[in-house]
Amino acid sequence: MSIMIYNSMSRSKEEFRPQQPGKASIYVCGPTVYDYIHIGNARPAIFFDVVRRYLEYAGYEVDYVVNFTDVDDKLIRRAAEVGKTVPEVAAQFIEAFHEDTAALGVRTASMNPRVTEHLPEIIAFISELVAGGHAYPSEGDVYFRTSSFKDYGKLSHQNIEELQFGIRIEVDDRKENAGDFVLWKGAKPGEISWDSPWGPGRPGWHIECSAMARKYLGDTIDIHGGGTDLQFPHHECEVAQSESLTGKPLANYWMHNGYINIDNEKMSKSLGNGVTVHELVKGVKPEAIRYFMLAAHYRGPLNFSEEAIAQAENSVERINNFAGNLKHRLAAMDNASPLEDGQHEALREKIAGIEQLFQAKMNDDFNTPDAITALFELVAAGNQYMQGDLANAKGLKLLQDALERMDDVLGLLYAGGGDELLDEDIDRLIAERTEARKAKNWARADEIRDLLAELDIVLEDTPQGIRWRRK
């Protein structure tokens, strides 16, 4: 079954056909590292991590690049405020980014290029644009000549005469046209800078991704991703400068995730309603944050609230309770099953159908909400199976393997895979043991007793019934 991707460029779903069979290249715009990442940054980090995971699940070898903008106006201001150098501030928040995204289950990218480590490539890229008439120096700056690229506006589907310029596009008298954007910024007194053919300065925001993507992934990327807010001006400008230089498409598929609102208001610094991952994970399980992000389709808006997070925590708890019960039931059982393989055909067929549904939903533009629904179908089928009389090690292993395959894409299981039973799980097992003893099912009663003993759960008979405590 083919993977279909909604391409922002064509505004339609297209079959994914990578340039090299069996290989996929992805470039996702990373953060400007002047502060801790907020949940708006976390959404693309988590979603594109799932895209990368699913392509690997589907058999692709994936080159996954996420850049760091480690010099710009925000970093310069932050460094001045805290009395540090720009590289010191960048190093602090790059480390924080890795810590926060690792907590969210985001796997390390194949490459995390930094702007300050690629000045030669950026300067060479700008020089080629100048030589080709697509850019021009002006009083120490260098600007891209948007009139030289006839398709400017094709990604955001805007007419060049009607464009509304984003906050990072500066309008001043040094430009030939108001829509021209900066490739190289001449240094102001006291600012960090590098030498260039146009004088000391630093790269503009848009040029960095074009230069680094070209170095690591070639002239054309399979998938270029980021938040909807980057579609214009950032990605539009990337398209213009890259395609003017190479004459080739910068990316074959453009993917953009939707905005996050906070209690139905757009998240912004001016409103003071930003939520950093660094603080959020102190009170919320990271897996619940990940679930919250994936429970809505990536292209739609997402509303963050305490109620939504509480619902996510409950849902992810159900999945992990199932994983823990599977693990502990399996550990307590004799691997030698008294049943023939044929007696598990119905379970195998059920699991296969669920996995086919999971794949169909993920193949349909990475529909994670419906993929999660398929995961819950597995949980329901597994719980029903464990309550039946035929449950044994072979069946439990079929369920566990399927859960692990699906979770290898979604990443919702707790670290450790359910090593510790929750209180309600222990109560349930004790109740099940009591019923087994009443029914003279001594094998199951002993199995539960041994399981609890392995987990250092001590059972005590009292006049009020069985009580338990942890050693």
UniProtKB/TrEMBL annotation:
UniProt-listed InterPro entries: Cys-tRNA-ligase (IPR015803), Cys-tRNA-synt_Ia_DALR (IPR015273), Cys-tRNA/MSH_ligase (IPR024909), CysS_C (IPR056411), Rossmann-like_a/b/a_fold (IPR014729), tRNA-synt_1_cat_dom (IPR032678), tRNAsynth_Ia_anticodon-bd (IPR009080)
Principal localisation: cytoplasm
Chain positions recorded as Zn(2+) binding sites: C29, C209, H234, E238
Enzymatic reactions: tRNA(Cys) + L-cysteine + ATP = L-cysteinyl-tRNA(Cys) + AMP + diphosphate
Subcellular location(s) of the protein: Cytoplasm
Keywords carried by this UniProt record: Aminoacyl-tRNA synthetase, ATP-binding, Cytoplasm, Ligase, Metal-binding, Nucleotide-binding, Protein biosynthesis, Zinc
Every Cysteinyl-tRNA synthetase class Ia DALR domain range: 357-421
EC number(s) on file: 6.1.1.16
GO molecular function: cysteine-tRNA ligase activity
Keyword Aminoacyl-tRNA synthetase: yes
Span(s) of short sequence motif 'HIGH' region: 31-41
Gene3D superfamilies: Cysteine-tRNA ligase, C-terminal anti-codon recognition domain, HUPs
Known partners and oligomeric status: Monomer.
Family: Belongs to the class-I aminoacyl-tRNA synthetase family.
UniProt protein name: Cysteine--tRNA ligase
Species whose genome carries this gene: Paenibacillus chungangensis
